[in-house]
Design brief:
- It comes from Pelomonas margarita.
- With 330 residues, the protein is an alpha/beta fold.
- 39% of the residues lie in helices and 15% in strands.
- The chain has 14 helices and ten strands.
- The strands form two sheets. Strands 1-2-3-6-7-8-9-10 form an eight-stranded parallel β-barrel, surrounded by five helices. Strands 4-5 form a two-stranded antiparallel ribbon.
- Strand 7, helix 9 and strand 8 form a beta-alpha-beta unit.
- The radius of gyration is 19 Å and the shape is globular.
C-alpha cells in the first residue's frame, strides 16, 4: 500500500519509486539555502500545481494527488521553508487536518494560514463571488476562536508561522464608517490568545485601513501587519511606513498578484501563466525591495514568513529562488 504521505520508505531495486517524489535538488539551490538565515521562511501560497514538474516534483501528477500527498515532496526542496494553507479561507479546518499537514514537514518549516471567510468577509457571497447580504459573523471573536485560532494552535504546534486575517474588500456602507471596523477588529484581536510560536497578522484589501488607528490597534494587540502585495493596495514602498511604525517585530508577506494585471486580474494572470512553469512577468523592483526588508528583519533576529503566488511573476517556485538569491546577494 502507498504511504499515507507519498513515497514508500523503501523501494525495491529496479522498480520506480511510488508516490509523489521531489525533483532532484539543484546544487545551486542547496548552496543558496545554506546562505539564508534560519529566520527566513520563503514559500509558495499552496503546493498542488502539476506544472511544477522538474521544479518541485520529479514526475507528473494530478492536482488532486499533489493536494493530498505532495506536501512532503514540496518540503524537501531546499529553498521552500514555508507554504500557505489557503483552503481554510473557504471552509474552516479541524485541528486534525492542521496536524496532518504539520506531521508531513521537517523541523523549521512554517505554515501561513488564512482565516475562514466566515469571519473575514463582511458579505455572504454566492458561488460567483458576488456579495448577497451582510455577514453577521464578520470579525466575530467567538467564531474566530472556534473555527480558526484554537484548531490552528492545537494542530500546527511548532510549525505555526503566521495566522492571517485577510479582510476582504468592504462594502461602501462599512467604508463610510471605518471607526466601527477598527473597533470590531480591535475587539477580535484582543480576544485571541498569543500564539505559542509564530504570529497573528492582518492583511487588508482596502487602503482605508492603512491609518494611524490601524497601527495603534496592531500595537495594542501584538498583531502584525501582513504586507499584502496586491494591486488593490499601494505599492510596497507605500506600505513601508506601517512596517516602520510597528518595528521591531516579525515580517509577514503575501505576494499575491503582479500589479500589471490590475486589481481584478486573477483570471487574466491565470490564463497568461498557464502551468506556472516559467517566470513570464519578472518584477525585480518589488523583489529587490522585499529582499532588503527581509535582510534587515532577519538580521535583527526577527522571523520572516513570506509566501508567493504563481500570479506574482508567473511561477512561484522560480520567484522564491530569485528572491532567495536577492536576499543572499545583498
Amino acid at each position: 500500500m502507498e504511504d499515507l504521505f507519498g513515497a514508500l520508505p523503501e523501494t525495491p531495486a529496479g522498480k520506480p519509486a511510488r508516490g509523489v517524489q521531489p525533483a532532484p535538488p539543484r546544487a545551486e539551490d542547496v548552496a543558496l539555502a545554506g546562505r539564508l538565515s534560519p529566520h527566513v521562511h520563503l514559500g509558495t501560497s499552496t503546493w498542488s500545481y502539476p506544472g511544477w514538474q522538474g521544479l518541485v516534483w520529479a514526475g507528473r501528477h494530478s492536482e488532486s494527488t499533489l493536494s493530498r500527498t505532495g506536501l512532503p515532496a514540496y518540503a524537501a526542496h531546499p529553498l521552500l521553508r514555508a507554504v500557505g494553507i489557503d483552503r481554510g479561507f473557504y471552509r474552516p479546518l479541524a485541528a486534525s487536518e492542521f496536524q496532518r499537514q504539520a506531521e508531513q514537514v521537517p523541523r523549521g518549516f512554517r505554515f501561513t494560514v488564512k482565516a475562514p471567510s466566515l469571519v473575514t468577509d463582511a458579505l455572504l457571497r454566492d458561488e460567483d463571488g458576488r456579495g448577497q447580504q451582510p455577514n453577521p459573523l464578520f470579525l466575530d471573536p467567538a467564531t474566530a476562536l472556534q473555527t480558526f485560532i484554537e484548531p490552528a494552535y492545537e494542530g500546527l504546534g511548532a510549525t505555526l508561522g503566521a495566522l492571517v486575517f485577510q479582510l476582504s474588500p468592504l462594502p461602501g456602507a462599512r467604508l463610510a464608517r471605518m471607526h466601527e471596523q477598527f473597533d470590531q477588529l480591535h475587539a477580535l484581536l484582543r480576544t485571541c490568545p498569543k500564539p505559542p510560536v509564530g504570529v497573528l497578522a492582518v492583511e487588508v484589501r482596502d487602503a482605508a485601513w492603512l491609518t494611524a488607528d490601524f497601527v495603534a490597534l496592531l500595537r495594542d494587540t501584538g498583531a502584525r501587519y501582513c504586507l499584502g502585495l496586491h494591486p488593490k493596495l499601494p505599492p510596497l514602498a507605500g506600505q513601508l511606513p506601517l512596517l516602520r511604525a510597528l518595528w521591531p517585530g516579525p515580517l509577514v508577506v503575501r505576494w499575491n498578484l503582479n500589479r500589471l494585471h490590475g486589481a481584478y486580474g486573477y483570471e487574466e494572470a491565470e490564463k497568461k501563466y498557464g502551468e506556472f512553469a516559467e517566470m513570464l512577468d519578472p518584477d525585480p523592483e518589488t523583489r529587490d525591495e522585499l529582499a532588503r526588508i527581509i535582510r534587515g528583519t532577519a538580521g535583527a533576529g526577527q522571523d520572516c514568513f513570506v509566501t508567493i503566488s504563481n500570479k506574482a511573476e508567473g511561477s512561484a517556485p522560480l520567484s522564491v529562488r530569485a528572491l532567495a538569491q536577492a536576499v543572499a546577494d545583498g
